[in-house]
Amino acid sequence: MTTQPETTQPETTQPETTQPEHFQPDHHTAYSDPGPWAHLLSTVDPTIEAVSAAVRNVIAHYRGEQAVLPEHTRKDIHGRWIVRTLERDQQRHNASLAQHRDLAERVQGCCRDHTLLACAVLRQHGIAARGRVGFSRYLHPDFCHDHVVVEARLDGSDGRWVRFDPELAGPLGSLTTPTDMPVGAESPFPTAAEVWQSWRAGELNAQDYGAAPDHPARGPWMIQNYVLRDLAHRFGDELLLWDFWGAMAAPGPVDEDQLALTDQVAALIVAADAGDRDSEVDLERWYRADPRLHPGRSVLRRDPFAPQSPPVAEVLSTSVA
Description:
This protein is an alpha/beta fold. Helix content is 30%, strand content 12%.
């Protein structure tokens, strides 16, 4: 690691986890709030290309780059808060987000972290942005990986949500336009709600959807979890992909109550994505009111590096460590 000159680091305060009653995607959430590091986000040009390049430079995928990344920074993946991500990055580099970082010195994370940092940059510039949780058909030719991408309302987009994958520098597989992704159940990136509806209609094999072709986290329970994750991210609770709460199904069969609940949630998400304003309002109101849907003050967090270990109860308030 390059030795940096001694500097005085800004004091990092505890993130405030209380979200407003109505999600404002052009404002920071508790998770995207950069705290004393706001100036780092302000210097990134708020274009898809510049934002994506910056987040790839700061964050390395803990699984995709595991052979290169050091074991002693694996705890990065539980960082949760952008203020923590930036704190760790600056402890290692003390440089703008555009200055090159060697791969082994980057903060370890995943698609959720790339997306959240991209949203943080855009929100810092007053641009509405949110994460979408679903499954990629372009990362592997024969499997649909769990994935998170960005939606943003950019200048010149006529007010529509433009979907992009900040992990990609160019086309990959079936995704020819990573800076303006097609949408819909048959697209290269269907949302979790779209996948859920397709599975319930008997149109796909749920075992083809999950964490990886050789990973046991797949199938109906995984898709059900991801519908609730997408719901949480939609309204500013941008939780880790290994956090569990509320009505999330455990590995194994999804029970009748969970099936019925998820059918209703998925239907509202798909309708809201299609532009139904009443569905959007109803969805957010239900999300805020129903403890089966939102995380509350704590979650159960698992560790993808130790999948057999019991989950850890984690309060959704933390200081940087």
